[in-house]
Write a structure and sequence with these properties.
globular; alpha/beta; 6-stranded mixed sheet; 8-stranded mixed sheet
């Protein structure tokens, strides 16, 4: 989940031109390509351009994939209330995976009327443990609590998300049994540090929190996203695919930041964007051009040509 009011290109620019030949799994000595049945794509820094738009070329590619019988799933760190940017492009099934796998959401109702189909919450006990352990390991960390509908934050937490929090209090009070966050499931905790390097903060947090929660990041700043144990884009996507009888070999995935790594590793065919974080490039089986050059559409067009 990018800071919602910031430019969303990732931390490394490769300068790959849009006309460059794509790096594909077969070119890297991979196994024979299985025809895709599902496309799973991240949004910020991947499907969306830096101005948060979906280009006409990408809209056409998504529609063509659905017309060809390939389901398209948006798999994002964004909460459901930020999904209006793509709610017109979910086609028949209407589903998206939000909160880094913490929720499967039916977007058919439109902005403000999304229905939660599946929720994989972060237990309050685990959330409190994560806050305590990370406070000890990284003094100065500031927290916010993301729920199915609510959003709460500590008073000093920076204004990163262009929204007014429902309440302001220390994280321990927000997550208390009788606190403001008690009424709804917690999808994730956001942890921000004003001084640490983003990758160093991620490594530190994973070591400190251990198996009490899953920790990742998608922002260019030192903003971590803490979900329930085992909750990730990959694990929730795997559940959705199993319900449809789709194997991981039949999935093509796209991403650009560390919260995409598990999904790109799990999918049978995966592409790092031209603007992707180095860890994403290492995890993916192929690479496309940058989000501002419609890298997802470029690959979808190629996939449809393969099927013709």
């Amino acid at each position: 989940m990018r800071d919602n009011d910031r430019v969303t290109s990732a931390t490394r620019e490769t300068g790959t031109p849009a006309s460059s030949k794509l790096s594909t799994p077969l070119e890297q000595g991979g196994t024979p390509i299985v025809p895709p049945r599902l496309i799973a794509t991240d949004l910020d820094g991947t499907l969306l351009r830096d101005d948060k738009s979906v280009s006409p070329r990408t809209v056409a590619a998504l529609a063509a994939a659905e017309e060809a019988g390939i389901e398209v799933f948006f798999v994002t760190g964004r909460p459901a209330r930020w999904m209006d940017v793509v709610s017109d492009h979910v086609h028949g099934h209407g589903l998206a995976i939000c909160g880094n796998g913490a929720a499967v959401v039916d977007l058919h109702g439109g902005p403000g009327a999304h229905r939660f189909v599946k929720v994989r919450e972060l237990a309050h006990e685990n959330a409190l443990d994560a806050v305590r352990l990370l406070r000890e390991a990284a003094p100065g960390t500031l927290y916010a609590v993301e729920q199915t509908y609510g959003f709460h934050q500590e008073p000093a937490y920076p204004k990163l998300h262009m929204e007014v929090p429902d309440s302001l209090a220390p994280a321990e009070e927000l997550l208390a049994a009788d606190g403001p966050a008690a009424a709804e499931p917690v999808l994730k905790i956001l942890a921000y540090h004003p001084e640490l390097d983003p990758d160093a903060f991620l490594t530190l947090a994973r070591l400190a929190i251990g198996d009490r929660a899953n920790v990742t990041r998608s922002s260019p700043s030192a903003l971590l996203e803490i979900s329930g144990p085992g909750v990730s884009k990959a694990s929730t996507l795997a559940l959705c695919c199993a319900e449809r009888g789709i194997s991981h070999e039949e999935v093509v995935a796209f991403g650009d930041m560390p919260n995409d790594v598990e999904m790109l590793t799990w999918a049978g065919r995966s592409y790092a964007m031209g603007n992707a974080h180095p860890d994403v490039v290492a995890a993916a089986s192929g690479q496309t051009v940058a989000n501002n050059e419609d890298g997802v559409a470029v690959v979808i067009e190629q996939l449809l040509t393969e099927r013709a």
